[in-house]
Write a structure and sequence with these properties.
With about 160 residues, the chain is of the alpha+beta class. It has five helices and three strands; from the N terminus they run αβαααββα. The longest helix is centred in the N-terminal third of the chain and has 43 residues.
């Protein structure tokens, strides 16, 4: 009887702890899935239209990615003078910039952030109150589809404007 009096409260506390951790992990998983789903849907729409049910969750990212600028500098000759010597008129760098610029800007420049928050109740044993749980996801925006003939025409216009 004495052993049961000591062990039963410990088992009850252990059971409540296991259920609390399980509920917390499931809630965190649900939040991250919602953020990921909204981010991918928004990206698939070229970051132009917020999908239904994702209002207030996704938004254009304001953080700049320095990797995109470094790649553009390298393509345009940046610190490497050998590219500038080979391309005295700048035609090649203009064509490369027009062909790869939008791709690099989309890949490195345009991105989105999805954030979902939810209140989570703590058991009274752990002090009660509520805890705010957050799911986040960061993703690059997809490119607007272009036809190959339009890309070729744009490149030709840079080579020969008229």
């Amino acid at each position: 009887m004495v052993e049961a009096t000591i062990v039963v409260p410990v088992f009850i506390l252990l059971l409540i702890s296991v259920l609390y951790v399980r509920d917390q992990a499931l809630t965190q998983h649900d939040l991250e899935m919602k953020a990921r789903s909204c981010a991918w849907q928004f990206s698939a729409a070229n970051c132009d239209a917020v999908p239904p049910g994702c209002e207030g969750i996704v938004e254009q990212s304001t953080t700049q990615n320095s990797a995109g600028q470094e790649v553009m500098d390298a393509l345009q000759g940046g610190k490497d003078q050998s590219v500038k010597h080979a391309d005295k008129t700048g035609v090649v760098s203009k064509i490369i910039d027009s062909l790869l610029g939008p791709v690099l800007q989309a890949a490195f420049g345009r991105s989105l952030d999805a954030t979902v928050a939810r209140e989570f109740e703590r058991p009274a044993v752990f002090g009660g109150k509520t805890k705010t749980m957050t799911g986040r996801y960061h993703l690059a925006c997809n490119l607007t589809p272009e036809e190959p003939i339009d890309v070729a025409k744009d490149a030709w216009k840079l080579f020969k404007p008229n």
